Amino acid sequence: MIGHALTEGWELLRRRTVVSAVLAVSLAVPLAMAGFTATLGLWARPLVSLKNERAMVRVLLHPRMDAEQRVSWIDDRTEENPEWSFREVARDELADNLKVWFPYLEDLVEGENRIELPHLVEVTAPVPDEVEKLRDGPAVIAVGPTASIHHVLGRVAESSAWMLGGLSLALLLSAFLLAATWIHLEIFRHADEITIMRLVGATEASIRSPFLFVAGVPGTIAGLLALVSTLYLVRLVANLATAIGLDEPQMPLWIAAAELIAGLVLPVAASAVTLARHARAEDEE
What we know:
This protein is α+β, with helices and mostly antiparallel strands. It folds into 2 domains: 2-46 and 160-284, no CATH class; 54-147, Alpha-Beta Plaits. The protein is 69% helix and 8% strand. The chain contains 9 helices and 4 strands. It has helices at residues 2-15, 17-48, 67-80, 91-101, 106-110, 149-189, 191-199, 204-243, 253-284, and strands spanning 55-61, 85-89, 119-125, 140-143. A 4-stranded antiparallel sheet has the order 2-3-1-4.
């Protein structure tokens, strides 16, 4: 039976070389993109934890508050929010920072006409958006940005990981449907031959094996093409990540193996399902 499958399958491939090559490339595209998106999803996963990091928010207190009032205000806020931590920034430190951040303010912070700087308190909280409620108090004149870059990056990474995972599954499904459609067309082309073989008593295994072989060869080629393409795409992203100071994405070995296996298994499985449906349809007739 193996010899029959190889002989008949090779004859089908020889007569449909161009179509088989197109099938291999068409299968390689979704497989490569599935492996690529899965690799990016795994690469982004460690960034998801950033959204749970404690973030620091700067709060400006009224400049007329004395030391006792500031201590009392911080104690009250700490009691209300025990998971927060507060650090009062000395005015000299604030003035030095302002001169670094905004050099044109140097005359205002240390010249003869220097202004009275407000008191700055740094609040570290697990949920920075909650610090915004301090704005309602009379002691607070401003609350700094609560959108930490780490939190934003973590949320983007989390949504991206889910999106890339869903896209990978959709691409694998498209590869399966593509193979099933191709085999369905091949069965339609050879429907008369298959019917004659059944009439003369040929077993289902001998009928199906050439088609499974025909699906397996382009599938194997598709897996190899997908692996090479994925490695190339990952290398491009790695170069970009290095340029902006991020860790390079690495393609795990199991994804490489999964691409090779999927390239073979998906079209063969699609062929088996299509052939079984074709056999049931003929039996019902």
